[in-house]
Write a structure and sequence with these properties.
319 residues, alpha/beta
Length: 319
């Protein structure tokens, strides 16, 4: 018998400042995310970043939170994905978050409770492209939690699926209804990374090369859709400094608007589910930038979330 553990980054338990502060501190305390000397990390995180960032982040989470569902958009979509996947595969499926709840131990224990005869748990980190601050930290953390307990099953980790035909097909299906309408430019935007992280990955080879993988995803998707490459752009968003990957999404849409482009589409293929970076940073903030500088029609294309074509794709990716 097999089970499936879907793992994503995580989000605050609620959109209150207390929970937002706790989540930010947990995430930025990860050495894979905040790559500074160990002695300096708590000083930087607890003394500078969290005290200032907690207020703005709380306001941003309040803007995207749906009080009716009680969960963050990211966690809600993860649960929906797990429920649908469990129904069609007839395998136990659980959700876990790298930071926050439900945590990895709770996810593994829940799988055991559903079926104590499991011999293998397939772990799917929900990150198409490899990055130390997303994929690697999840794999390492799940492994550490697993070996703390005498679980009777083994783990199988799914590698980044940036070029998997099923992922490319699902992504193309999500974009097609928007791309079938007239537009000036479609922007593929991925989360930015520190250049030091990018360079380390590039040195190791294509299976660790974030920039190569983002470009390969775009190449395969536009081939599938038959979109002219001249109507596409690659950008990165949510950078936390000047020495991060560029070109920047907001700067790009500002330039496009000032050049006279009126209708743009933006999609974030690096995320499996919508979250703060997509629903606030892109759908709200980037749209405001585009409209303020002369653009008239901005469409954010939602993530794959728990759409049926994504369920089908995940089944193929984990099999």
């Amino acid at each position: 018998m097999k089970g499936v553990l879907l793992v994503n980054t995580g989000s605050p338990k609620t959109c209150t400042r207390k929970d937002v502060r706790f989540f930010i501190r947990a995430m930025l305390s990860d050495p894979y995310v905040m790559t500074v000397p160990d002695w300096f990390r708590p000083v930087l995180v607890n003394g500078i970043i969290v005290p200032f960032r907690q207020f703005a982040s709380t306001k941003h989470y309040e803007l995207i939170w749906d009080d009716k569902i009680k969960d963050s958009p990211l966690l809600y979509q993860a649960k929906q994905l797990a429920e649908k996947l469990e129904e069609v595969t007839e395998m136990p499926v659980e959700v876990a978050m790298r930071y926050g709840q439900p945590d990895v131990t709770a996810g593994l224990d829940s799988l055991m409770a559903k079926n104590n005869r499991l011999h293998e748990v397939v772990v799917l980190p929900l990150f198409p492209q490899y990055a130390e601050s997303s994929y690697k930290t999840v794999v390492d953390f799940v492994g550490r939690q697993f070996f703390k307990r005498p679980y009777p099953f083994r783990l199988k980790f799914i590698e980044p699926y940036f070029k998997h035909p099923a992922y490319i097909s699902a992504l193309a299906q999500s974009i097609k209804p928007y791309a079938d309408q007239p537009f000036d430019k479609i922007i593929f935007s991925f989360h930015s990374l520190p250049l030091s992280h990018v360079e380390e990955g590039w040195k190791k080879g294509k299976e660790f090369d974030y920039v190569y993988q983002t470009k390969e995803t775009i190449r395969l998707v536009i081939n599938e859709l038959g979109i002219d490459t001249k109507k596409t752009r690659l950008t990165y968003h949510s950078a936390m400094g000047n020495d991060w990957l560029k070109p920047d999404l907001d700067e790009t849409v500002k330039e496009l608007a000032e050049e006279g482009l009126k209708k743009i589409l933006v999609v974030a293929p690096g995320f499996a589910a919508d979250n703060l970076e997509t629903l606030y940073d892109i759908k709200i903030k980037t749209q405001e930038t585009f409209l303020q500088h002369g653009g008239t029609d901005f469409s954010y294309i939602p993530c794959l979330n728990s759409e049926d074509y994504w369920i089908d794709a995940v089944m193929k990716i984990i099999s």
